[in-house]
Amino acid sequence: SSLNQLMITIGILASYLVNYAFAPIEGWRWMLGLAVVPSVILMIGVIFMPESPRWLLEKRGEKAARDVMKLTYPASEIDHEIENMKKINQIADNTWTVLKSPWLLSTIIIGSVFALLQQLIGINAIIYYAPKIFATAG
């Protein structure tokens, strides 16, 4: 989607700005090390994050799902949400059956090839090599 590409471009711009800030002190190690900060924050956050209620409903039963849902849902909505999750799980089982159909295989392959080509020939490669392109161009 275009929002995905926008966020990728903003991330690339941010990396260029950080690189520009660290260039005078040859701080490439600091630039690469900055990626550790959000990674550590995420790793610590994942330790305290409960499992998904939908996953719990499917794997450990309704009681486990209800216990987690009490943390984020109002008590009046839990029953309704549990019923919705049960319906969605039934629909999801049917979806996998449809996706395995031979008639849909060509569509999935074409979509996957286009997604791969977008990454291989997209703007990301041009932005990555922009300094060399501009230096060569004068």
TrEMBL record:
Its main location: membrane. It holds the Pfam family Sugar_tr. Keywords: Membrane, Transmembrane, Transmembrane helix, Transport. It comes from the Bacteria. Residues 1-138 form the Major facilitator superfamily (MFS) profile domain. InterPro entries: MFS_dom (IPR020846), MFS_sugar_transport-like (IPR005828), MFS_trans_sf (IPR036259), Myo-inositol_Transporter (IPR050814). It is found in: Cell membrane. GO terms for cellular component: plasma membrane. Coiled coil: none annotated. GO terms for molecular function: transmembrane transporter activity. It is a multi-pass membrane protein. PROSITE patterns: MFS (PS50850). The chain crosses the membrane at residues 6-23, 30-49, 103-130. PANTHER family: PROTON MYO-INOSITOL COTRANSPORTER. This is MFS transporter. It comes from Staphylococcus pseudintermedius.
